[in-house]
Amino acid sequence: MKIFFTFLAFMALLSIAAAQEILEKSKLAEQMENYFRLTGQRILILDQDISGLNVPSDLELRKLPFSLTEGTDYSFFLFQDKYVVIYPASLRDTYSEKLDKLSSVSKASIFEIKGKLRDNEMKTFIAGGLFSIPQLELAALTNEKGEFSVQVPEGTYIGYFSSMGKQTEQKILKVYRDQDLDVILFETISELDLVTVTDRAIDANVMSTLPGATRMPMEELKLLPPLLGEVDVVRSMLLLPGVSTVGEGASGFNVRGGGVDQNLILMDGAPVFNPSHMFGFFGIFNQDAVNDATLYKGDIPAQFGGRLSSVLDIKTKAGDMQDWYLTGGVGFLSSRLGANGPINDKTQLMGTFRAAYPTWILQRIPNTGISESVTNFTDGNLRIDHRINDRNSLVISAYISSDYFKFGADTAYTWQTNLASMKWKSFWGENLGAETNLTYSGYRYTVLGEASPLDFELGSSINFLGIQQQFEWSGEKLEGLQFGFQVNSYQMGMGDLNSRSKESLIIPVAIPDEQGVESAAYIQIPWKISDKLQGQIGLRYSHFFALGAKDVYQYQPGISKDTRSIVDTISYRAGEVFESYGGFEPRLTIRYAITDDFSVKASVNRSLQYLHLLTNNFASAPVDLWKLSDSYIKPQEAWQYALGIYKNLKQNKIETSLEVYYKDMPRIVEYLDGAQLFLNPALETDLVMGSGYAYGSELLVRKNSGKLNGWISYTFSRSLRKVETEFGEAVNQGGYFPANWDQPHDLTVVSSWQPVRRISFNATFNFRTGRPITLPSGIYDIGGNIVIDYQERNQARIPDYHRLDLGMTYYFYQKRNSNYKSSLNLSFYNVYARRNAFSWFFQPTPELGIPKSYRLAVIGTIIPSVTYNFSIR
Questions:
Q1: What is the pTM of this model?
Q2: Yes or no: is domain 205-872 CATH 2.40.170.20?
Q3: pLDDT for 19-32, tens place per residue?
Q4: Which of 87, 267, 411, 503 is deepest in the core (most CB within 10 A)?
């Protein structure tokens, strides 16, 4: 018993000592944070050195570095007036004389130490990392490529390597010649380890000159609850203010009142025409292949064009330069595997493969149409990076995917996406860089009717080829100046219908393809009047040529276009220009920094769009039709004006912003009531040019650091359209009506909590106004036939949408030098099983013939998913 109580007393003493140490560390952390807020200087210290410092006291806060080190075996130095580095004084004593005479040391005794910092998990280079040699009170920050370089005298030193959230590395450096280092940093295990900034400046949202631009690294995307076990780049963008979708099962997204076709989605420069698998349930972007995603929804840089609303620029990962490693995940619905590493000292490879098998869970969704469906998909990425020499490098990227979806018993859908790009980067001097990018994008969909004798195959396709040449100036004056040109070629398959068997009663139909060429030249000039007032001026001129072979129908003048009013046909040869459009697309942004953490930004830009998505549904789908501008369908046009205020709080730990915008769309493509869009050789008879406008405000509050972080965003927006022509063709008697995606209120809450190092919890909640729909205004019995008379377009709404998702990630224990790393993700989509309406339609009842209303909820239940993720070095 005495031994037992003695043991308890000993453990109590240990607990008290541990608690005292924790309290002292906590107090030190608090004082260091207060010191940073007061002076703007971050105190950096190794965790193992804390015990050798003075116990934090309540002396004058400005003297904290002195009070911590006075009378101890430690010293400190100030770097760039931003960092106070505390280190053992013994490191410096033996070099004090050499330090005093450093300026007189001969060049023959001074050598260069250069190197790179890399991340252990992501295998990417770390920008903003810190390299320091305390003996010489010398330090340097890594640039955007993770590189640093310093000049030091001959001798032996201890070098410190550190970055935000990483353990500080120490290396003995014997300097008797130039050295080139490559250092890998591991995750930190203590919040007090030596830290610096990340690759994104902490005040980037305030000081950046581009309003409405958001960059999300893959590390941030992985913290969000996945749908069906997959991290989805496109769905993650829906959590940002100003970005929405009409509902679950819809492909694409809407930005600031624009349609889904008004967003340019790029993967390594190649345009993506369908960003989803399985009708929007999965995204085509594999999380193991994506490096980061940037969304431009305010001012769009001049190098991008062809869309009115936004640009989503997705870049894939480069292969590791040192070692081979595997990544992947195994889940109930999908699995993936990736590998990357060096082929030789100049060439790296990255490859991924993914397969999904979610049919079994679809069978459990309480909707007959969905539960009887069968679906699967596969996709893969390949990227090769090759350094030709110090001034030239080559990047080849490719993507391929295939989808199959069978709805019910008699109709199946298949679609394929193929992307490829080849980028050649070169330097034409000390300050001029060039980038040549060749891209290809191919998309094909097929609808298969399997009910005999009406079995059929309906399909359409897109083939895109593009070249872009861009130059960038990095000199001291006009740094960041960009200029170049691009040429894009389109071949659009407008649809073909064929029978699948000899017994089929289907009559084949083939609509001729459309061809066109889009070209553009652009320049973007950064300007700076002072540190407070600066911005960018962009000018882009684009031109579009509609090419034959093409039969252009001529209609009787003075009346609306109709197949019965065709009076002539003009035939154009292959390659002959039969219509052209063009225009200037100016862009201007202004940023005025009122203080270091408070700025005002404004932008204005004009955009032209020569490509149109044709759909008379409320949501886009993989089987919608894309069309080029021609003699009757003119390019879409938009002017967007935006104004925003940006304010950071608590030393940039909390970001706030409020943006307002107005978008004028004098030309947009709309369809008439009852339009036939597929297999229509005279589409211009069912399409009209309309106009519209959109406006809104976007509020964002975001916390970026600490154990609990995330953001709250609220968007109020309206998107209205109008169709009225000189021939009396009109929708809603020529008045404005809400667009299909007009959803005035949108609230999103995203949170991530990591109470301990190996467990994190995350949650998202979304509420938005129900989308517009058209309801019947009357029912008539005409000769025994029930006829439904619909009211004006989009004058009613489905019920409001709201949903809660929860997730948890457990990171398995990993030894510091372990080659294996793994985690387990558990997520719950639609936690309280909300039956959000996706559509509302009417069908006659068999007994009475009176139409009955039906509300379709695509996902009306909670969907759990479990995914085991791993990486092997």
A1: 0.79
A2: yes
A3: 444 445 556 777 77
A4: 267
